[in-house]
Structures are given as C-alpha cells and as structure tokens.
Amino acid sequence: xxxxxxxxxxxxxxxxVTLMALVLTLSGASPAPSLDKPVSQALQALVPPGAxxxxxPAYFYPSEADVSGINWWPRxxxxxxxxxxxxxxxGDGPGAAFDQNYxxxxxxxxxxxxxxxxxxxxxxxxxxxxxxxxxIAKYRSWYPSLxxxxxxxxxxxxxxxxxxxWDVPLIGCLNVPTNxxxxxxxxxxxxxxxxxxxxxxxxxxxxxxxxxxxxDTPAADIVSVIERGAVVPSSEESxxxxxxxxxxxxxxxxxxxxxxxxxxxxxxxxxxxQLTRERNAxxxxxxxxxxxxxxxxxxx
Length: 300
Prior knowledge:
Elements: H1 14-20, E1 53-58, H2 72-79, E2 85-88, H3 100-111, E3 115-121, H4 129-142, E4 148-152, E5 161-168, E6 172-179, H5 180-194, E7 199-203, H6 213-216, E8 222-229, H7 246-250, E9 256-261, H8 269-278, E10 283-286
Parallel strand pairs: 1-2, 1-10, 2-3, 3-4, 4-7, 7-8, 8-9, 9-10
Antiparallel strand pairs: 5-6
Helix pairs in contact: 4-5
C-alpha cells in the first residue's frame, strides 16, 4: 500500500521519460506474454513504446528540494512529458487545512498538461466510508481543480466486510456494515458527483483474484495491481518473480498501473520499464528509492 506521509508529491526525468509514457486513449488487449523469460529476452510489449505515462506518488512537500536545490514538484512536472498523474498527499489525506503551496503546485502541473489527484486511505474497507467522504469533501472544497482521488488500501475481495454509509435525511451518514464492492462503488460515485471527469485510481497493492471487479463495478477507473519491490528479502516475491492474473492482460492498458520500488542499480530501471509494458501497465512508477515515496528516482 502507499504509506502515510505528512506532506508532499513528485515524478520522473527525461532519460526515462520516453520509456515511462502512458496511454490515455487506447485500450486494446493482447495475449499474455510468457513471464518465465528474462527481461533481456522480452517479447513484444503489450503497451507500445511512448504509450505509457507516469503515476507518481508525490508524497513530498511542494517547497522541498533535492540536494542540488531543485524543487521536486517543478522538476517532476516540467521535466516529464504531459499526460501523467501526480498523487498529492498533504497529510495522509487532505491535511488539516488548505495549503497555498499545494494549490500552486497543482496550477504548475496543470500548466504542463499533468493531472493531480488527492490521496485518501480506505483501510481495506475498515475505515468508515463517512471518513473517506469527509476527506473527499475537503479536497473538493480546498482544491476544486484537482483531477480526482487516489483510493489507497483498496480491498481486493468484493465480499469482504466494510463500513459503509446509510444516508438518513436531516442526519447524514450513519455507519453500517456492508461489503467491499458496495463500499467502493459508493466512494466512486461520490467522486463522480464532484465531476464526471474526475478520475478514481484504486490501489489494492496486488491484483484481485476475483477478477476485474474494481473496474467492472466500477470502483475505480485505474487500478494499481502491483506495488512491489524489485529487490526484496528472500522470503518475499519480487516484482520480477510476480505472476499477474490473466485478467490484467485482458484489461485495457489505460486502466492498469504498476508501482515498482528498490530498482537497483538505477541503470536497471529501463529494463524494468520494459517488463511493465509486457505486463500491460499503461500507468507506471519505477524508482530506485524505497516505497516511502518521499523523493524522485535518481535517474529522473
């Protein structure tokens, strides 16, 4: 899952940019490639070169800079081609109050043809829908030009218990038990009430074994089906070893996102990006850093 961070977002650099590009319009599908071959023997990618775009967990404050003094947000949005998405996370959600620095960052990225969406955590459905709605309402009030919502910790089992809302006239939302499918469908509708063009990106951190229900319900417009390290402890499965279900290959690649961290050395990022294309990921973030998402990749 995308972990909490008290302020901030960011994105990728020009050398990798051509490999990171993501598709906004096409949604074709192809037969799944064999994943037992090394990256150097990669088959033709499902996602054409130049069709990917970045989905950047920009969990750094807009005024923060790298060691060379370059501000992360301008570096992210200006050096990377347009059409990508930055996820802002003022405080494990919208934060305690409006922040002009975030408003300026949104405007800057919009000027570079970027989209910016706000982070909300759902706790696998254990966090009440009422709380999630309140976060969405704050983003809508404080940053009305945002392009949508990033729903983190999205449950993968549609029948799992979740805490939904029962809307009572003159009272409002009452917490009631429901299932994950209805919970996330309701959250999705709240975002679309804000604007039909607002995007919902869901992050379960792994692909559901129940098929593409998050896309079909719909509960999300884009699903991040994997958040995994390229280098992990021996007891864990790395991104390269991971085998995704068939439905991910069959979904339109504009609906699929992959987030890969600990790609070391950073010179191996292009090969990892090639693998994301073979796996039908139209939206990607590949970094040599860890998954605290507090900085851009070295190669950006």
